[in-house]
Design brief:
The chain is built from 18 helices and no strands. The radius of gyration is 22 Å and the shape is globular. The longest helix is centred in the last third of the chain and has 33 residues. With about 450 residues, it is mainly α. Helix 6 packs across helix 7, helix 7 packs antiparallel against helix 9 and helix 10 packs parallel to helix 12.
């Protein structure tokens, strides 16, 4: 395990250095692309008869076990760090929107992708049962906070817009994991649930989601009480690490959602950090968790790129993955657009909100870790291949092109930049905005506003 992690760490450092020195792509995109190119190079060498390098690296990647590394390892730190860096009041101001997108949006997307992929894959001759297609819908529907938060921090999004995108990503991740585990329990049969069947599945969903939320708030409260009693920065850091890692493990042992618990615990501490920590401690804590977030992100994206080495796709599976990229984007557009259309009259979302949420809906390490955790079956490799194709598309294509979209949203209208682009009305403060935290968009003449969604 140590050897495998050492190789991953050294390769990540090398790829990050080469990217920073010569290529200058965003760091996570650069290491993912570098890892993929390295994996392809080793694959070509294997075809030419030089199999040893690919065999050694493949064995090390298998030993690390990507699924366990993410779901039972670094995910707790990433979600806690992501939530800790958010403005809790902005999240609370938009709670209706965020929860609607995270819950109903994820359910809508799972159903649309599941049913569509079932018909598409079977039409191509790739026999995947409906429950397998729904599992694929559940694991690919949530946007990956690891990928999304990394991208939005690179651009000067308004605080309210960043809170909406980041909050939706953090919470729909938790909902997606719970939904995936619920469906996986149905695959295992009625014995997987205490009450059996669909009723047991719904009970499990409620227990994990709601129980995880309550547990997270309790963890955040206890953490705040403990942190008030100490002043030494090393002890404060140790307490927060214990809260993130130990709290996640405890939630899992209790049958609760660890991801949701970590998001709520991080948000609770984010709200009180200015009162719990002194001035220098706040800077230290912010710097520490930012560094942890960056390093783990780079490790995961390198892992994603290198794992291409383990794929053995058929031409039909590659073709199916390319078609499913379109399906996933369409489902994301509907699952975001429908809830926002219902909330728009009250919340006044800006015209670019749907487009930013759709194109900024990156998938990454969590989708891959979930698909790799699927039990052995006749269709597992098909789902693994199409998931990798979609993840690589979102990282390399959407990840590199989201910047110009953000810039267009900000600069298309001089008014838009000063009105936080995605929703604040002229002369209206955040406190005076709608109950959902986003004010109605400013009035304009039909067809003349360059940010108009239909233009």
């Amino acid at each position: 395990m140590l050897d495998a992690f050492a190789v991953l760490l050294c390769l990540t450092a090398l790829l990050a250095f080469l990217n920073e020195r010569f290529v200058r792509l965003p760091a996570t995109v650069g290491v993912a692309l570098g890892g993929m190119l390295l994996a392809l190079l080793l694959g070509v060498l294997s075809l030419l008869g030089v199999r040893e390098p690919a065999s050694v690296l493949g064995g090390l990647l298998t030993r690390l076990d990507f699924s366990t590394f993410v779901l039972n390892g670094v995910l707790s730190l990433l979600l806690f760090a992501g939530a800790l860096g958010l403005d809790t009041r902005q999240i609370l101001a938009q709670w209706r929107s965020i929860l609607s997108l995270a819950l109903f949006g994820t359910l809508i997307s799972t159903a649309l992708i599941g049913v569509s992929s079932y018909f598409l894959l079977n039409a191509l001759g790739l026999n995947v049962p409906l429950i397998g297609a729904l599992l694929f819908g559940a694991l690919i529907s949530p946007t990956d906070p690891v990928a999304v938060l990394d991208k939005i921090k690179q651009y000067a999004l308004p605080a309210r817009s960043e809170a909406l995108i980041a909050g939706e990503s953090l919470f729909n991740d938790g909902v997606g994991v719970v939904l995936y585990l619920t469906l996986l329990g149905l695959v295992a049969g009625p014995a997987a649930h205490a009450t059996g069947g669909l009723g047991g599945a719904l009970l499990l969903f409620g227990q994990e989601a709601l129980g995880g939320a309550v547990f997270g708030v309790l963890l955040g409260g206890l953490g705040a009480l403990a942190l008030r009693q100490v002043e030494q920065e090393g002890v404060e850091t140790l307490l927060m690490l214990a809260l993130a890692v130990g709290g996640y493990a405890a939630a899992d042992a209790l049958g609760l959602s660890g991801p949701i618990a970590m998001v709520l615990a991080g948000l609770c501490l984010s709200e009180v950090k200015s009162r719990v920590f002194g001035g220098s401690s706040v800077d230290h804590i912010r710097s520490f968790w930012h560094t942890i977030d960056q390093v783990i992100n780079l490790l995961l994206f390198t892992f994603v790129g290198l794992d291409v080495l383990l794929l053995r796709p058929s031409g039909l599976e590659v073709w199916a993955g390319a078609l499913l990229v379109v399906v996933v984007l369409g489902a994301r557009l509907v699952s975001v657009g429908l809830p926002l259309a219902l909330l728009r009259r009250r919340a006044g979302f800006g015209p670019y909100t749907v487009r930013l949420l759709t194109w900024g809906g990156l998938r990454g390490a969590i989708a891959i870790s979930l698909v790799l955790s699927l039990p052995a079956s006749s269709y597992r490799e098909t789902l693994v291949t199409v998931t990798y194709i979609i993840v690589l598309f979102t990282i390399l294509v959407q990840g590199l092109s989201i910047g110009p979209l953000v810039e267009r949203a900000v600069t298309a209208s001089p008014e838009a930049a000063s009105l936080e682009t995605l929703g604040l009305r002229t002369g209206q403060s955040a406190e005076d905005s709608s109950p959902d935290g986003l004010a109605p968009e400013p009035p304009h003449r039909q067809g003349t506003d360059p940010l108009d969604l239909q233009s």
